[in-house]
Amino acid sequence: MTSFYLCPNTGIGLIFRKDAVILSFSAPSGEGPRSSDLKWEQNKECAVPTRRLRLCLQALSLSSQHAKEVVSILQSCPHLSEVDLLGNKLGDEGCSFLMENLSWISISKQLDLSHNFLSINGIYSLLKAVSACQKVVEVEVSLYHNTAVLRFTEDGEFASSPPR
C-alpha cells in the first residue's frame, strides 16, 4: 500500500510505502526552479542551497536488527539537522551500534534515542561512545524518564577525535 502527501506551501512530497519513505523536493509553482530546471553550463558553477532535514522515525518498532539499515540511511543523508528515533525498540545493542558509527554520521543539531529500552549498560555504552565524538556538546540521559538525547554543534560534519 502506498500513500502520497504533498505540502502545498513547500512543494515537498512524501511517499510512504511498506518498506520506504521517499521525500520529493520541488519548489511551489512560480516560486523558483525545480531541480530538473537547473542548467549546468561548462565552466560555471550552480550553487544549490543546502537543505537541513529532520528525519523522524518515531514508534516504528525498529529493533536492534534494524540498526545497520538505520546507520546506512543516516550515512547517506549528509544534511540532517535532527534525527528522531524516539519510541522504538533498538535496545542496548541497536543504540550501541548506532553510537559506534556516530563519527560517520552527519547530524547538525540533535539525535533522540529516548524510549528505546536502554538499560544502565546501554547508557554507559552511549556515554563511552559519545566521549570520542567532538561534535557532541550536550547529552541528556535518564533511566527514570527514559530519555537519551544528544545535541551537537552546528558547524561542519562529525569528526573522530581522541577521547576527552
TrEMBL record:
InterPro entries, A to Z: LRR_dom_sf
Alphabetized UniProt keyword annotations: Leucine-rich repeat, Repeat
GO BP, one annotated term: positive regulation of transcription by RNA polymerase II
SUPFAM superfamilies assigned to the protein according to its UniProt record, in alphabetical order: RNI-like
Protein name: NACHT LRR and PYD domain-containing protein
